[in-house]
UniProtKB/TrEMBL annotation:
One of its GO terms (molecular function) is DNA-binding transcription factor activity. GO terms for biological process: carbohydrate derivative metabolic process. InterPro entries: Homeodomain-like_sf, HTH_RpiR, RpiR-like, SIS_dom, SIS_dom_sf, WH-like_DNA-bd_sf. This is HTH rpiR-type domain-containing protein. Residues 11-87 form the HTH rpiR-type domain. It comes from Salipiger mucosus DSM 16094. Transmembrane segments: none annotated. It holds the Pfam family SIS.
Length: 288
């Protein structure tokens, strides 16, 4: 599978289809339309099934996949399976509607929390919490959907101790944030699937700075955990469209609670100071 020369990453099935679409012959375009209308099904269709749905022949399907740069239909199907495994919403739950009933969501979310807590190592949590309590400074980072999770944990830890902040401030480059990291620091990096390119390189760079690294990720992350001090693996995938983050939120809440316990009276003193300053500044709405 030829890589994209700009990123060295494999060119995805969808991108190949969109880039070739304008020059496709009519019958091959029917096959392309069938895939683009239900991309998740490409992971399970046989060549004959795809040809039948498109109203064409197996030979037409074969010509299209070869035009797209694949050696065979199976190579194209494996590409679709990889996209499903990375969590692309277009490749989740086949052609089922994006909407779900309240009962389905409740069962799915409860299952995610149970699956996440079942694989949680309490000792790892306690070690990470002690490190967060004792660190010179704590820096947190997440990208895309992981960003709001990193922001949530930042806000919780900042109520318990000083020197807690995002690794990269708004408008700041990653290099500027990484340059301030060193021995005695803890970096919390949240990297759930559909991570940005070169995520693993970022993990290695942070590890090389001498800081302790807490990685919060899903089971699909492969090489990066080898460079982390601790890794907390969270379930995110259900039978419903789109990933769920309730398991991650549960873990982060527990982590904040364990950090408060590790800090002891210091957390209470810091929180008292924060609350006093809030009152002085009249920052929060008063209860009536």
């Amino acid at each position: 599978m030829p890589p994209d020369p700009r990123t060295d990453a494999p060119v995805s099935l969808l991108r190949r289809l969109h880039e070739a679409y304008a020059i496709l012959p009519g019958r091959e375009r029917l096959v392309a339309d069938t895939i683009l209308n239900a991309p998740a099904e490409m992971a399970v269709w046989s060549a004959s099934e795809l040809a039948g749905l498109a109203g064409t022949s197996n030979a037409t399907v074969s010509r299209l996949v070869q035009r797209l740069g694949y050696r065979s239909f199976e190579d194209a199907r494996q590409d679709a399976r990889r996209l499903r495994e990375t969590g692309s919403p277009l490749f989740m739950k086949g052609s089922a509607p994006m909407a779900a009933s309240h009962g389905e969501v409740l069962r799915a979310e409860a299952g995610i929390i149970e699956a996440t807590l079942a694989q949680l190592d309490a000792e790892v949590m306690q070690q990470a919490a002690r490190a967060l309590a004792e660190a010179r400074q704590v820096r947190l980072l997440g990208f895309r959907n992981s960003r709001f999770l990193a922001d949530y944990l930042t806000a919780q830890l900042a109520q318990l101790r000083a020197d807690v902040a995002p690794l990269a401030l708004e408008g700041q480059t990653l290099a500027e944030g990484i340059a301030g990291i060193g021995q005695g620091d803890v970096v919390v990096l949240i990297g759930l699937r559909r991570r940005p390119a070169r995520f693993g390189q970022l993990v290695r760079l942070l590890a090389e700075r001498g800081a302790k690294l807490l990685l919060v990720a899903d089971k699909g992350l492969r090489e990066a955990p080898a460079y982390a001090t601790w890794t907390l693996t969270c379930a995110v995938e259900t039978d419903l469209p789109l990933d769920s983050y309730v398991g991650v939120m549960t873990v982060l809440r527990l982590l904040a609670s364990d950090t408060a316990e590790a800090l002891g009276d210091a957390a209470l003193h810091h929180l008292n100071e924060v609350e006093t300053l809030r009152d002085t500044l009249s920052e929060l709405e008063q209860a009536r």
